[in-house]
Design brief:
The structure is a homodimer of 492-residue chains.
Chain A (H helix, E strand, L loop, with lengths): L11 H11 L3 E3 L6 E3 L1 H20 L3 E2 L5 E3 H4 L3 H7 L5 E4 L2 E3 L7 E3 L4 E8 L4 H11 L8 E10 L13 E11 L2 H21 L6 E4 L11 E8 L5 E11 L1 H5 L3 E3 L5 E3 L1 E8 L1 H10 L16 E5 L4 H20 L4 E3 L7 H10 L4 E5 L1 H6 L1 E6 L5 E5 L3 H26 L1 E3 L3 H9 L4 E5 L4 H11 L2 E6 L7 E2 L6 E2 L2 E5 L3
Parallel strand pairs in A: 3-9, 17-18, 17-19, 22-23
Antiparallel strand pairs in A: 1-2, 4-8, 5-8, 6-7, 9-10, 10-16, 11-12, 11-24, 12-13, 13-16, 14-15, 19-20, 20-21, 23-27, 24-27, 25-26
Helix pairs in contact in A: 2-6
The structure holds zinc ion (ZN) (2 copies).
Keywords (chains A, B): Aminoacyl-tRNA synthetase, ATP-binding, Cytoplasm, Ligase, Nucleotide-binding, Protein biosynthesis
Subunit structure (chains A, B): Homodimer.
InterPro entries (chains A, B): aa-tRNA-synt_IIb, aa-tRNA-synth_II, aa-tRNA-synth_II/BPL/LPL, Anticodon-bd, Anticodon-bd_dom_sf, Pro-tRNA-ligase_IIa_arc-type, Pro-tRNA_ligase_II_C, Pro-tRNA_synth_II
Chain lengths: 492, 492
Amino acid sequence: MSKKLTSRAADYSKWYNELVVKADLAENSAVRGCMVIKPYGYAIWEKMQAELDKMFKETGHQNAYFPLFVPKSLFEAEEKNAEGFAKECAIVTHYRLQNDPDKPGKLRVDPEAKLEEELIVRPTSEAIIWNTYRGWIQSYRDLPILVNQWANVVRWEMRTRLFLRTAEFLWQEGHTAHETKQEALDEAALMNNVYATFVEKFMAIPVVQGLKTESERFAGAVETFCIEALMQDGKALQAGTSHFLGQNFAKAFDVKYVNKEGKQDHVWATSWGVSTRLMGALIMTHSDDNGLVLPPSLAPNQVVIVPIYKSEEQLKAITNVVNGIMSDLRKKGITVKYDNRTTHRPGAKFAQHELQGVPVRLAIGARDLENGTVELARRDTLTKETVELNKLTKTVESLMTEIQESLFNKALNFRNTHTTEVDTFEDFKTVLETKTGFISAHWDGTSETEDKIKELTKATIRCIPLDAKEETGVCVYSGKPSKRRVLFAKAY
Amino acid sequence: MSKKLTSRAADYSKWYNELVVKADLAENSAVRGCMVIKPYGYAIWEKMQAELDKMFKETGHQNAYFPLFVPKSLFEAEEKNAEGFAKECAIVTHYRLQNDPDKPGKLRVDPEAKLEEELIVRPTSEAIIWNTYRGWIQSYRDLPILVNQWANVVRWEMRTRLFLRTAEFLWQEGHTAHETKQEALDEAALMNNVYATFVEKFMAIPVVQGLKTESERFAGAVETFCIEALMQDGKALQAGTSHFLGQNFAKAFDVKYVNKEGKQDHVWATSWGVSTRLMGALIMTHSDDNGLVLPPSLAPNQVVIVPIYKSEEQLKAITNVVNGIMSDLRKKGITVKYDNRTTHRPGAKFAQHELQGVPVRLAIGARDLENGTVELARRDTLTKETVELNKLTKTVESLMTEIQESLFNKALNFRNTHTTEVDTFEDFKTVLETKTGFISAHWDGTSETEDKIKELTKATIRCIPLDAKEETGVCVYSGKPSKRRVLFAKAY
Ligand SMILES: [Zn+2]
Ligand SMILES: [Zn+2]
C-alpha cells in the first residue's frame, strides 16, 4: 500500500493492473487466468447486481438457474455458436480421483471414472437453456419466457487481465422466448437500452448504443445490439451486448409452439449479458493517478469519517459528534463508515480511502470541535473545504448528486472530444495513433474492408450507432458508396 | 398440472418428487444429477439468500468470490479434506474442442489441449481459499478475516434427488481466519446459531443444534456444529453445518501470522455453509397432499387475488376494488399478485396457487362487490372465510404472522411427538421402524458402536445436542457407561 501507483501517462496498462490489486478489488489466483474478487471489489459488484436485478424485474424478468455443465452433444447442436466457443472450452472428462499408487499422499485422476460423454463448462448457456425450454413451451400461452440467470462462466482465454478478460467470470445472461420476430427484436433492443441506462445513470459512464457488424456478432446471433464506452486511454470497451437470435436456437433444439391460429412455428429468441468486465470499465473511466474514483451510486462507503486526536478524551468527544453525523447521513440513505481503527494513523487512512475511491472523506480534529466544523475532501476533484456542522448533511447529500453528475459529464466530455469524424484513410490512421478515441467514418458495408482496416490499423468497427444519420458518403478505405458513418476504435 | 399428487401416505418419496416438479420449483436437466431451478423455485431461494446475506453482514462478514477450479496440487494439500471429496470430483483435463475429422459437424476434445495439471471443479473451497489467505495474512492486524462466498459447487453423487442431493448445487460458504482457538470456536458456534435462527424464524422449521460425532464430521474439521430438522416422514435432514477447522488448513497452506507479542503462529479457521438443500427441507416440513405450503416470509407471492366475473364490466368493477386492496396491502409490505389471466378459469387458478403454496388467496366476485366482502382462503389450514373489505388489510396482515407461527408450531409439535427417549436396543429398533423420528438414547462414545447401530438399523447419530443434559446411563447398544443422550435417526 505504501508505494505510489504508476501514472497513467507513464504506463496505462501497468497503472490499471496496479490499481486493481492495490485498491483491494481483485487479484490473480493459483488457477491460470482465474481471479479472486476481493471483498471491496465484490461489494461494488454487488451494488451493480442489485440495481441490474431490480431493472430486470421491473421489465418483467424472473431469475432461474441452469446447470454449469453442457453435454457435448447439446453444445454442438447450434453449429455457429459451437464453432464460436469450441476453442476456449474447459472440458470435464472424469468424475473421480484416486490415491496415486506411485506417490503416497497424492491423488490422480481415476482412469476408470471416465465420462461416457464429455461435459463442457458453460462459456454461455444458450444450449442447455434452449434444450430445457423445449419442455416448457407448447403453446402461445407459455410465451413469452423472460428469464435471467446470475452465474459464473468459463472461457479459456490465453491472455487474461483482471476483470477485463478472465478465464472464469461472473455475469448475468438473459434468455427469452417469443411468439414473433418483432417481439424478440423489441426485447433485444429494450434490454440493450436497460444496459445503457444502467451504465450511464449508475456507473456514470456514457455509452453509444449500436449494432455490431456481422463479423463482430455473437456466435449464433442474427443481430447483436451493444453498448460501447470509451476509456481514458482512447480505447473502446464493449460494456454489454443484447442478441436477437432469430429462430436459430429454436431450430437447433426443436422448440416449437402452437400459435393462436393453431399452427406450429419455431419460437423467436434473445439473449443478453453483462459481466464483471463492467468493473474494468468503471475503473478505467473514472480513476486517476491517485487510485480509484467511484461514483456515489456504486461506492460501498459513500462517506468515510476519520478522527484526528491526540488523547482518548479528544477521541471520545469527536466520536460523540461523529455519531450524530452518521445518524443524520444514514437517515438520508447515505452509507457512511467511521474509520476509528487504532492500528493506522490518519495519513495512512487518508491514503487508503483515496486509493479506494471513497467519494467523500470527512476529517474531524480538536479544532473542528471548537469551531463546529468538519473538513470535507472530495475524491473526484481532490478539493477540500471546511463545512459548518449544521450544514454538513445538506452539503453531503447534494454532493452525492453533484459528484455522480460531474463524473458522467467529465467522461462525456472526454468522449466527445475524442470522437472524430474523418473522411480519408490518412486522417483515419493519424487520428487513431495520435488523438485516439472513436473515429466516425464511412464504411462500404463489406467484411473485406472491415478486415483490411483491422489488419492495417488494429481498429475494429465498434458499432453502427442506433442514432446514426443517413448521410451519403464514400468508404474511408475503399471509396465505395456508403449511407452512414460507423464508429471505429481500438478496443479492449 | 391437471393430475393430483401422489399422497404422502401412499409414497412419500414419490409425493416429494412430483411436488417439486408440479409446483414449478425444479426439474432434472440433460446433465446427469444436475437440476434446473425454475423461476418459482428460484424466487424462494432468492428470499432465503437475501435474509441470510443480511444476517451474515450484520455479524460482520463480507462477500467475496474465489475460482471455480482448484488445481489438483492444492486440492490434495489438506489430506483429510482431499480424501473426503476425492471420490466425487468433476475433473477438467482439457481446454479446447476441435472439429471431429470422422464426424462432420461434430466436435471432439482436442488431444493437444491437455492441461499440465488437472483442475478440480470445487466441491468446497477451503483449499483455494486458504491458498489465497496466505497472501492476505501477515500479522494480527489482518485478522480476523470474515468472508463469505455465494457459489455453485459440484459433488459427483451417484444417486441424486432434486434439491436434496444434486451433482451441482448452490450454496454459501463462509471461511474465516482468527488469532485464537477460542475466537474460531466462538465463530463456528455463532454461525451455527445464525443458521438455527434463520431456519426457525424464516423457514418456520424447528431445529436441534448439536455437534457431529467424529465419523459424521466434515472432512478436515476438528469439530462440526450442525442444525438438524425432522421431516414429515420421520427422517432427519441436516440443514446446515459450521466447522471449527483448528489449524489444519493453516498448516496445510502455511498460513502464519505474527501476534501482538511478535511471535509467529498458525491461524485458526472456520467454515460454514447452507445450500439449496434447504429447499428440500422447506418442502418436506410444511407441504401436504395438495401441494406446497409456504411460510409467508418465504413466499414469492404472499397473497394472490383471483377475480370471478362473467362480463368485461364485472371484471372492470372488480379490478377497481382489487387495485385498492393491492395498494393497501403493499403499503404494509405484503407482496400481492393479481391473477387476471384470461387464459385460465378461476378453478384452474385456485388449483395452481394451492399447488404452489401461496399463503393467502383472495377471490372476488359480483356478489362480493355488492356485499363489500372478499373470500379469503388460507393455504395452510385450507379454510375459507368471508371478510369485510374494510377489515381486509388488518386481517391479512395479522394472518401473515399467524400462519408463520402456526407452521412453526405444527412442525415443532410433530418433532416433539416424534422424539422418543429409549433405553433398550429392542425399543430403539421398534420406535425407529414404527413411530420413526428422533431417538434420544445413550451411546458409549465409540465409532464402533455407532457403525454397528448404523449397520443394523440404518440410523445414524444426527448430533450430540448442545443442550444435552449430563445424565449417567448405559449405551443402548453396548451397555457401556454414557454421560449424555445423543439423537439418532434415519436421515436424508
Ligand atoms: Zn486526449
Ligand atoms: Zn407419526
